[in-house]
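As practice, study what follows.
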Amino acid sequence: MKQYSFEDSNLPKVNANENLETISNNFFRSLFCTDKFEIRSETKRDKGIDFHIELKKENTPGNWVYTNYRFAVQLKATESVKANKDESFTLQIDSSNINYLLNNGLPAFYVLYHKPTQSFYFENVSIFLAVLHQKEPDWSKKEKHALRFSKILDDDAIEAIYQQTFANGILLRRINQYQKIPSPADKLQGILIDHNNEVYSVAENIEYIDQFGADLINNHYFNYIIEIEQRTHPRNNATLRFNLYSGIAYFHRGNIYKAMDLLKIAEKHSDNFDSGMQAALEYTLLNGKYLLGIITKEEYDTEIQKINDRKETGTYFQKEKAFYELSSNKSNTSEGLATVYDTVKNILEYEKNNQIRIIAYNKIISAESTILFHDLNSNFSYFIGRIKSPLKTRTYLEWLELEGKFLRQIDSLAESAHKCNFQIGIANLIIVRIKWNYEKALHTHYLSNWNKRSFDLSKALDEKTRKQLIFDCQQLDKIAESYDAIEFRENMLSCYILEYQILHFLQRDEQAADLCTKILNFTNAYEFAGLQKEYELIFTGNTAHQQFVNKYTTHINQIQDTTSRNGIDIYSPLDENFNFDPTWSIKDFFEFSFPEVSL
């Protein structure tokens, strides 16, 4: 019998490309850990995707689940393509295949197996398309495109693909929960995907700001409100409160024009607001108009007074009205201060937010500071220039005792701000303390150097006070930079204005001039025309210490002239044991209280 010979048989030929495909497939699968990936081959009528690879996730140790989060792979293989000079490899890719992968809707990757080196390279289809589109906007009209493979498909790359695919799966899930079958009755709504792939419903954003905007404003979460406002489009059905709170947030971030646009939308139907919200709207609009130079300071003050005069304007304006009455009631300071104390107590009776309490108490601190210096000036007017050592008198020593209590008030409030992590409140209290140092310095320095009819401005400031004020200027610089970083523009400018006045008082003219330029540059940049006019007055002879010198000199001269006409010798020195009984408006300072639960 003749032996069968394979050499003589007519059998299918072995295809080297098919061998290469098998080798590449086998090696490719081995790259992926079976714990984390389920590889599914596309074998039936493959049109450009070789694998769909599903992610697995370990929910608890040893407990893995299928996610249905997938990515697609088109696998290429070569043993003949030569490397480029940069050791990359170039293949021609059909435009039809690029479009096919894009239509998949999942992350997709081209993978190249280079047999001579047994290496895998990859490229993200989205990245390839972005580069391609930048070079050739009409890329789809060409049949093929060159793709350079330079990225090694190693463990780090596979982990990055896993994370990208997982994030994409989360994103698609978020989008799917908002998808619905449209009907003619549906109102125009939308979703937004931010830079973190968070998906938001416009309706939910509007509802959230409408409901919680007041609390967010009270807690100074202005940036958070702005972020939500910026991702809420289209919004034909935005509520009035949404526009109001968004406008207030933009105002506090120095974007006055944007604030005014939103507030004017809210103003169109402001008759639907309660009295407190109407007052807040009017107040913010007035401040915006003043900052932009649309109204003068006098017009602003007149309109604010109209708001304060109303019976129902909300807790903020109740407090402001009490402070206004205090400042205008010089003849009965104690009674005015008692009214302020009672008003603040009533407003805060049921307030659980400690940050709001600190803001209100800070106003009391400001009022008490003004009164303490007012009383010091009034008491000194009885013997100014006639006592050799005025800072050793009973009047000044009693005032120092009051100062000690007052500073302990500030420290107590700062400690409470620390406990509730109210950083802005802490910064504001540091500024209050610095302002106190400045005003104490100017009062004690000038009151100690009165010469007959005027202050002796040639006297040098004592070294200890000078060093303290220089340190305070450094602190103000840091706080101003912090305010600038969080876009609290007005707060930042307030720091710089106080620093300018201290530098001017210290006669550091060059530094003061540089800061003046810096402030004016800021007011120009943010178009704060109203503030610029106000600050220009300070820069032209109206610092706090200059105003004190001018006003107190006029006041004392009037007293001197009146007493001289009555035959009293106003220049003769008084005995060191001169026993003057001073009068103080504050006997007991306000007691701060905080609920145990704070925000």
About this structure: The chain is about 55% helix and 10% strand. The CA atoms of residues 98 and 442 lie 76 Å apart.
